[in-house]
Every structure is written in structure tokens, then in C-alpha cells.
Specification:
Blueprint lengths: L1 E3 L2 E3 L4 E3 L8 H9 L4 E3 L3 E2 H5 L3 H5 L10 E6 L3 H13 L4 E6 L4 H4 L11 H14 L4 E6 L9 H10 L4 E5 L14 H8 L7 E4 L5 H9 L5 E4 L9 H11 L8 H19 L1 H8 L3 H4 L7 H9 L3 H15 L6
Parallel strand pairs: 3-4, 3-11, 4-6, 5-6, 6-7, 7-8, 8-9, 9-10, 10-11
Antiparallel strand pairs: 1-2
Helix pairs in contact: 1-11, 4-6, 7-8, 9-10, 11-12, 11-15, 14-15
Length: about 325
Amino acid sequence: MVKIGDIELPDFPLLLAPMEDVSDPPFRTLCKENGADVVYTEFISSEGLIRDAAKSTMKLDIYESERPVGIQIFGANLDSMLQCVEIVERTKPDIIDINFGCPVKKVVSKGAGAGILKDIDLMVKLTKAMVEHTSLPITVKTRLGWDDDSIKIVEVAERLQDVGIKALSIHGRTRAQMYKGNANWKPIAQVKNNPRMHIPIFGNGDVTTPELAMKMRDEYGLDGCMIGRASIGYPWFFNEIKHFFEHGTHMAPPTMKDRVEVARRHLQMAIDWKGETLGVFETRRHYTNYFKGIPNFKEYRMKMVTSDDSAGVFAAFDDVLAKFGDHNFA
């Protein structure tokens, strides 16, 4: 068993990574139904939240069915972060996660996200203050370092643990890498194998198959796996990993009926949550993976991603079922 504070999780839990415009309540719900053990919100700007910006406030919405759920926040100003914690607490999440890893320029330029990797003392100071400001478990997601010449993740992990965080997720790239090249899990394993560490260490980056999840568990000895891009438009991935762990075989891929049913539910939940226009627009990025590997599918995908209203997308789903039936395209 793995524990984040008092939250009990199964051995080697699978976590849905926080992803901007992806990890919203509809998608988190689908991932939870399909085997995700912990889900995290999209990252929320502390500055936006304390100004009551609509986009930031909306990201605080959580469904009871998602639990345990973590709300992830980012920022570099102590007062703002502490105010943010107070606002987040009111929504009663299970976990508050601090993003010290986002590599995007507009975040980094303000010293937030991965930008704080240039100032480890500030990272530790912010984290300590937040831990002391709430009774909720604080976790952190970060990267190996700013660049290859400044990887101090073993020391950083110790310092964050010492000020009271309850778990640490590490993306196996530096900020300089962005999302390019291969993730390096060796430094993450060094953190886990440090005899001083006693909190769960979760790996993140490049887990795209059940075999790679098993490698992260068995060869690198990590406590769990945070999954990001491989889950977009493919919430079944979590259960596929668990099936592989238990049986050593690959689970049968979703049938066309399964794909259409989940895509349809996803779109409807998105519309119910954020309205027709945003719901239609922000669900588009998932369709490529929902229907990945289907031959002669381009015309249907184009309808899905170019329709300006949900009626057009739902009609495209109906056309897909009429054309492909319930075939399995393994």
C-alpha cells in the first residue's frame, strides 16, 4: 500500500497528470472510471485565483466521483500562494499539489512552474509556508532541474520532504528539454533509493505502454506512475496497465462501440460543465486518440474537429457506428 498523508492507495498507484485544457472534470471522471487511482486538476494560477478570474475559479470544480482528487496550483509569490491555499481549501479537495515543473515560457518568465528551479531556496520556502498553512496534504510535481548542468533533484527532494510534503512526482526531463528527447528516469530512481526518503516518489514522462509502466515499477523501483499525454483521448490506458500487471497480457483494445460511447459521454459532460462552445472546442484534441489506428477514418475525424456545434459531432459519431459497426481494430 502507498499513502499520501492519510490517503491509502494500492501498490504502485496510477495518477492522471495535471494537463492544461485536458484534465478537466469530464476527462478526470472517465480516467477514474478506467483505473486512475488519483486524478489532478489542470494547473491553476494563484494570481488568477485570488483575482477571482473566471477561468481559474472554474478549475476548482470537482466531482465526488473523482476522489481522491488533487487541485494543482502554481505561482512564485508567497502571499498569493497562501491566499490561494485558503481559497482551494473551501472546495475540499483531498490533496493540494504545487506545480514546480511547467516549462511554458509565460509561466517560467514569472518565476513560477519550472522557473523556480533556478531558486531552490525559494521553492523550499514557499512549500514550507504552504504546508504550515493547511491541514490538507501538500504534494509537489517538478522536473529534474533547470538544465543538465543544474540537476540537484536528490537534494531538492530531501529538502521538500523535510518541510513536510507528503509525496513527490518527478518528470524525467529538465526545463531546457521541454518535452523533447527521452525522459531520464535514473535520477528519479536515485531519489527513491536515497535512504533518507520515506515519502512516495512517483515517476512521470514517456510511459506510453504497459511494459514501460512495469519497467518504472520493477527496474526503477518507483512508488507509482503519473501518466499524462498517453491518456489523452485514451482513458482506457490505466486499466490496460493494471491488466498487464495482473495477467502479463494485453487487454483487448476498446471496440468501436466503446470508443464512440466514451467519446460521446466525454463531449456531453464537457458541454454540461463548460457550455456548448467551449465543450465542443476543448474536446477536439481527444478525437485523434479516441479513434487512433482506424483505417480510412480521416473524413469522420475532420467532421469531429471542424463542427462548430455538438449536433455535428454527435452526427459524426452516429456515422462512424453505421460505417464501422462494432469492429475491433487491434
